[in-house]
Amino acid sequence: MPTDLLTALLASPWSLGVMSLLVIGDAFFVVVPGEIAVTALGAIAVTTGSPPLWAVVLCAAVAAAIGDACCYLIGRSVGTQRWRWMRTPRVQQALGWARHRLDGGMATVLFTARFVPFARLAINLVAGASHVHPPRYLALVSLAATGWALYQAAVGAAVATLLPGGPLVAVPVSIVLAIGLGALIDLWVRRSRG
Question: What is the Cβ-side half-sphere exposure of residue 6, based on CA atoms within 13 angstroms?
């Protein structure tokens, strides 16, 4: 694919919609590359100017909050025991961890879980199943989503600013950096649990 065509595709207005769908999907399926999409568009925003960085952050924050709120609604309407996959030992362990954490401080947990895929899903399902007060939950999850979106876009923007070579250099490097930071966060969470 020619570089001009790739850059044009990534800088098109449709890229914000695709990124938003990936971020929403990431709330349910951890294999969906929501973080990577935000980081890549952060790099594109700085190297090409389109889409604007503020639009990347805004769309990512709204999509992340929508995805988390959908998980909350599923937890509120379905609970955490209805389907067989919810009763597996690994899921039950994650849900138990989420219940314990929510009892200890909801704001801290929502902000931290936003950066950890399985924890994010578990926390939001348990928050819904526990009937956490919706306005309080939505306010906190919106703040957490905004902080997450700022962070993810900033990683891509920083790489694009520091590295010469345009989007063909900035996007892959920012993606590798985002994956590496995610792996470090996952490692830190595993060690802090153990």
Answer: 11
Sort residue 87 into left (φ over 0), alpha (ψ -120 to 50) or beta: alpha
How far apart are the two ends of the chain, measured CA to CA in Å? 46
User: Is the preceding omega at residue 51 within 30 degrees of 0, hence cis?
Assistant: yes
Half-sphere exposure of 61 (CA within 13 A, CB side): 23
Return d(Cα 189, Cα 25) in angstroms, integer.
Answer: 23
Contact (CB, 8 A) for 75 and 126 = yes
Q: How many residues does the chain have?
A: 194
Tokens of 37: 């999409």
Closest by Cα among 42, 71, 47 to 58 = 42
pTM (2 decimals)? 0.77
Residues 129, 43: Cα–Cα separation, whole Å: 38
The encoded tokens of residue 42 equal 């952060």
In angstroms, the CA 170 to CA 165 distance is 7
What are the tens digits of pLDDT across the range 34-93?
Answer: 888 898 899 888 888 888 999 999 999 999 999 999 999 998 888 766 767 667 887 777
CB neighbour list of residue 134: distance below 8 Å, 6 or more residues apart: 72
